[in-house]
Amino acid sequence: MKTVDQMIADIIRREGGYVDDKNDNGGATNHGVSLRYAKGKPELDLNGDGVIDAKDIRLVTPEIAAELYKQDFFVQPNIHRLPLKLQPQVFDMSVNAGAKRAVILLQNTISQLGIRINIDGAIGPVTIRLAEQAIARFGFKRVNNGYVTNRIAFYERLVANDAKQGRFLKGWKNRANEFRL
Question: What angle separates helix 169-177 from helix 140-161, to the nearest 10 degrees?
Fold first, then answer.
């Protein structure tokens, strides 16, 4: 099983460096830290000018991204409490599309297997127990690959609702498929 630091290194590799694509709804992004996310984090005024903007995003280092990922996308949403095998993919999706969306996709995956679960985007004792049950009943491969399929369907819905996002679809699908077994 991967450590959280190994998972973060993989995510930073997938995210790449600085990009400011006019079609990216997150705005300027560096090591996966987007301007849209940064605007809610006063500590990301990295140049100290009182405004969080693309200049601050350029200053995001892999180390800064790693700390943000660990706290906001792994620990805070309780991904660290999920079964170990599920953590890398749910964590990756948490960084890619937000923690709540990542958890909703997991809960949808569990529901699609016929296990009744409240789809609320939060990881608590029930979601943890039902994720464990899903793996025990159906096997990790089926749960994992169901999650990959749900990720791809989510990305396809994004593009269907906003055609300019289509330029990212192939990369998003490749990212999801890295987890397919």
Answer: 170
Separation of alpha carbons 181 and 73, rounded Å: 24
Q: Measure Cα distances from 106 to 32, 82, 110, 135 in Å.
A: 21, 10, 6, 12
Contacts of 96 (CB under 8 A, 6+ apart): 32, 102, 172, 175
Residue 14: count other Cβ atoms within 10 Å of its Cβ.
15
pLDDT under 70: residue ranges of the chain:
none
Integer Cα distance of 97 and 93 in angstroms: 6
Residue type at 111 in one-letter notation: S
Would you state the torsion angle of the CA atoms of residues 58, 72, 156, 30, taken in this order, to the nearest 10 degrees?
10
Report the alpha-carbon distance of residue 180 to residue 169 in Å, rounded.
17
pLDDT single digits (tens) 34-60: 999 999 899 999 999 999 999 999 999
Give how far Cα 39 sits from Cα of 17, 83, 92, Å.
Answer: 19, 32, 21
Between CA 46 and CA 88 the distance in angstroms is: 29
Cβ neighbourhood burial of 33 (10 Å; 0-12, 13-18, 19+): buried
pTM of model > 0.90 = yes
Q: What is the pLDDT of residue 25?
A: 85
